[in-house]
Amino acid sequence: MNFQEENAMDVAGKIEQSLCAILPIGAVEAHGPHLPLGTDNLLAERLARLLANRTNSFVLPTLPYGQVWSLQNFPGSINVSNEALIRMLYDIGESLVRQGFRIFAMLNGHLGNAPALKDAARLLYRDYPELKVYYFFYPGSKETIAKVRDTPSSHASYFHACELETSYMLYLAEEHVDMSRAVNDPPTIDLEADCTPTPWETFTSTAVLGDATLATKEKGQQIIESTLQTMTAIIANAKQRILLEREP
Amino acid sequence: MNFQEENAMDVAGKIEQSLCAILPIGAVEAHGPHLPLGTDNLLAERLARLLANRTNSFVLPTLPYGQVWSLQNFPGSINVSNEALIRMLYDIGESLVRQGFRIFAMLNGHLGNAPALKDAARLLYRDYPELKVYYFFYPGSKETIAKVRDTPSSHASYFHACELETSYMLYLAEEHVDMSRAVNDPPTIDLEADCTPTPWETFTSTAVLGDATLATKEKGQQIIESTLQTMTAIIANAKQRILLEREP
Amino acid sequence: MNFQEENAMDVAGKIEQSLCAILPIGAVEAHGPHLPLGTDNLLAERLARLLANRTNSFVLPTLPYGQVWSLQNFPGSINVSNEALIRMLYDIGESLVRQGFRIFAMLNGHLGNAPALKDAARLLYRDYPELKVYYFFYPGSKETIAKVRDTPSSHASYFHACELETSYMLYLAEEHVDMSRAVNDPPTIDLEADCTPTPWETFTSTAVLGDATLATKEKGQQIIESTLQTMTAIIANAKQRILLEREP
Amino acid sequence: MNFQEENAMDVAGKIEQSLCAILPIGAVEAHGPHLPLGTDNLLAERLARLLANRTNSFVLPTLPYGQVWSLQNFPGSINVSNEALIRMLYDIGESLVRQGFRIFAMLNGHLGNAPALKDAARLLYRDYPELKVYYFFYPGSKETIAKVRDTPSSHASYFHACELETSYMLYLAEEHVDMSRAVNDPPTIDLEADCTPTPWETFTSTAVLGDATLATKEKGQQIIESTLQTMTAIIANAKQRILLEREP
Amino acid sequence: MNFQEENAMDVAGKIEQSLCAILPIGAVEAHGPHLPLGTDNLLAERLARLLANRTNSFVLPTLPYGQVWSLQNFPGSINVSNEALIRMLYDIGESLVRQGFRIFAMLNGHLGNAPALKDAARLLYRDYPELKVYYFFYPGSKETIAKVRDTPSSHASYFHACELETSYMLYLAEEHVDMSRAVNDPPTIDLEADCTPTPWETFTSTAVLGDATLATKEKGQQIIESTLQTMTAIIANAKQRILLEREP
Amino acid sequence: MNFQEENAMDVAGKIEQSLCAILPIGAVEAHGPHLPLGTDNLLAERLARLLANRTNSFVLPTLPYGQVWSLQNFPGSINVSNEALIRMLYDIGESLVRQGFRIFAMLNGHLGNAPALKDAARLLYRDYPELKVYYFFYPGSKETIAKVRDTPSSHASYFHACELETSYMLYLAEEHVDMSRAVNDPPTIDLEADCTPTPWETFTSTAVLGDATLATKEKGQQIIESTLQTMTAIIANAKQRILLEREP
């Protein structure tokens, strides 16, 4: 169900059946020596496909640019502003409503996008209450993560190019991982870094927030499967509610 | 030279060598029964790869959403505003300057994006004169088109899902074309349509502006090669100028 | 039917009769040694008066500032941004709806204004579908131009202070033309100029894109009359449609 | 010194001599049965010409649209927002700096424009301190007004289509006044009207705030001459300061 | 009736009874050696409390930042833009409507806020006609001022840290006044200052526009009571109109 | 060190000594039956005073309006947009730089403000790198919280009117707490609530996310003191760094 491979003559009926469009959104951003700049795009895209298969949804083309303020000074990072993201996501949502979609799931592979996604979702919620908008960033994976990880997290809310994210890549996009270059480089992140604008070059030179060498495909599989189940259930429930409302 | 497949450790030196980033930008839009919604994305992306190969440039991930006001009421179209596009393109350009690029070539597969691209380019020109910004929409193809086309154009400035665009697809993305569904449906476009907001459903039901059945891979090849030569020369010249400036 | 000469007590009834307001919009911009800076304003204004006479429309006061990015570095040019134009045109359109007008014809004398006019028209179309908005830039003149011009055009889409525009001035505002200073100065405009921000001083020192010495009042008359007929027909048809809708 | 009648070849030197550009700015707005909708434009334009003559300044083309919120529901009024005005005035000021002007005098014929003019002037002051920006609304006329008026003002800060403004018109644009339709219609304006948005239709049906029948050309002449002297002195002083700064 | 001291369980019913919310809005700005930076906040806040008592209204928390362009270069001044104020006031008004308020009285202690308040009020008037919005800056005090003041005003429209404002402070916030440091420092304000951006340091070093030594609590009392009566009457009338509309 | 009680004559020298301005920012928002609408303002303000005392900083007047999207439908809530907050905070920061401050600490009492504060801080960081900007929301309190709380948190990232926040109020603003009305009302918050716009009325009727009856002054004291120590250390270090930079 790759949306852009459909043609205009057939697509209207399929939208009516599917009701749900999934937008992968990631970023182009430094991910250490062993992962590509497009890691967040790859993860979002592959996860979106799996989710689409399980929920009979359409996958929209990936929006591959995100807000990477913290890493913008690292080689290869491309940063776009919250304003640009919010406006574009709002416009996409507006078109989806017009096209007959009732669920718009933004599948986010990059935490830095979260505030923009939330704002865009709220604006759509205000103007198009008939559209259910989701912003997913590995929901429901917390317990599995706690179980499978071997090293503690370098930071309370974000992870990056580390044991976790590298495991996700090994499961979802193994051909883009070069484990021979994986490093163990957990930074010490000062409490102050959470209270003032802090580019990451002040505490890491590799952008690897942890021990990437401990990543395995199996860890990735377990975590990704747990979040996939969560997202699948949420979308399935949403569809059911919509269908119930439609019944006479 | 797929930019997002690079990693942060190696990319800085390669940027220094390459100097040029190519951004494919297209749209999700109705393209008749024989072409997919993502036609403009596919064309921009494949053309970008060819151009990158010939000019030693990087291809950035495709920006797959464009301004499709005219066709927004057709099934499958997703429209984003000029404001969203301008802002995102400006932000991308700003990051490219910071990353050391000196040429930013927007390879556009959708005419409706042209005003936004021009505006974004002018803003970058004002703020970052050291960055050469291009907006390419099949430049240098005019004479070849005049030579190879069998049917007249339906409109003085735009073509869509017709003999021409279908030929481009046959050459660049044949696996996405279903010639068995190609139609001949040239509309009559009133002069008034150029002077007042006119959604295309007022003059076409297929969105095919011409005779798609006459499309051939050979026509596509000739036209695409002519524009590729033009773009290749423009970028090669720009690089040479930059390198000359750098000489002591 | 000069709108600003009307008084508030009488104007409401006249609007009800006329239905159509014509806004001349031009620019202050270098036009060579033989034409004044206000050439585009003069052309828009005089053409508007002729069109108003033939269609029983009101002429609004001229909006004399336009987007002249390309020539902004020439002496005398005054450039305003697309944003300023779009906002002002939108506001004017909104007031016209409130005043009872049903047709808003922007008579444009300067090609650089075209994208702003189109955007403003689309915004009004979205918010005030009951208002028919036109953006006219010499529509319907193409064939006559091909017939009467003696020299080829310097560029595929724009003409400036040349055989054509000077002829228009000789027909519409002869007292502002000094043919003794007219020059023949066709530039060579590189294909690259259409693909990257290119101020005109890079290819012309006079801003005359052609041979102004070949301009004649007769050429001007033929072309202007052809576009006047086209615009008159468009407005007459629009009025008729509105009146038909109103019939019981 | 009508700016738009100049040509690009000669104008640069003249700007260097003159240094000062005067922009008439008015509005299209109901002015009772005896004055035209364009009263504020006519007054601004004619006053600008007189001021230009006395100060060797250029008169720019009139910006004929203003903020007429209070009267927007009266027949014939065209209202534009502060945002549109501010943006356009800022852009014009920016171009004037680039063209070599050092004084930008906005000659305002409509009080409703005052906040936008002040804001635009402050923005230019911040970004272009070398440009002296004035916003003139009959400065220095207070004492003469107190002397010549026969009826008290209807409001502490504004006057409209009344003894005063009609007198200005009789002096500056007599051919547009129809004194046979002048009325005496002073409204009672509640104190509350200054503390809450109050469209003028709530207290007047004619938009004449006073006794227009008492207007005379002589009153107009005295007041206009007093403000002209004030403005002439201000601009003359400003020029002198600029020239002194330039001396070695 | 301090709004923020209420709790959510009880407040809905009280809003239904009161209908009116008063927002004190001031500024942080230099006020000479004898008055504190927060003078305008203190005046707005205390006046708001008195008005609330007399009209059974709620006092909202003070918005303590205002537009102080003219004094922004004086020690201690904090300036916020019109845009920030307008947006925040609009948002507050929108919430008040949702909460069931029908009257939103902005009690302004700083003249520089006036344009922003007026603009915000007009936007709310357009979008929420059911909400009556007031912007109060000492309304109805003119005659009393003329009676009690001993020295003439330094400027036709503004007063600052002078006989008047110091008197207000002596009446409303005496504990914040240090009369031993009060000065008599009337500036000469050129007519030009009203026609061009003019920071106040060009004509005063103390920011005291007059003779603060003549201030007395009694003068303050008389003026403040007169404006309180005016505001009380306006709000009482507004409430009465709303209640009448509600009657069956 | 209440900034708005200072006067302009003395304040410059004190700023030079202090270097640091603390801005309390809260919200007006439903906080259950036992806490006032202004809870977040009270907490921010009192905490700011304590922090100012320990760090020789100035306390600016409280910005009492915040982004309360989630609770905007509860009685008494007043919601302002991120845009309004960001713009106002940016403007305040800009003035602080001009006034000679080198540290701008936003002491936030309301989690919903966090994204706006972060964005404003990043904009100031870009434009005024000489200003150190902090956004504090109880930093360094995590361990103490884990130790003192008797009930688990209702949500991974937010707490509201519960055991914790009520304890803070008992310590900092006891006179505004009515423990007799405190309730135990922990909601069940679905995982979906973190992935889609979810007004809180969907899972709580009291807005108390936990057991407020377990709140004690002692718990409040321990947590507040731990965060105070953290913030004090951060500011003290920042001052030291600034002073070191200044040394010759």
TrEMBL record, chains A, B, C, D, E, F:
PANTHER family: 2-AMINO-5-FORMYLAMINO-6-RIBOSYLAMINOPYRIMIDIN-4(3H)-ONE 5'-MONOPHOSPHATE DEFORMYLASE, 3-DEHYDRO-SCYLLO-INOSOSE HYDROLASE
A biological process from GO: riboflavin biosynthetic process
Keywords: Hydrolase, Metal-binding, Zinc
Cofactor(s) this protein cannot do without: Zn(2+)
UniProt-recorded Gene Ontology molecular function terms: hydrolase activity, acting on carbon-nitrogen (but not peptide) bonds, in linear amides; metal ion binding
Similarity remark: Belongs to the creatininase superfamily.
Cross-referenced InterPro entries: Creatininase-like_sf, Creatininase/forma_Hydrolase
Organism, scientific name: Paenibacillus thiaminolyticus (Bacillus thiaminolyticus)
Protein name: Creatininase family protein
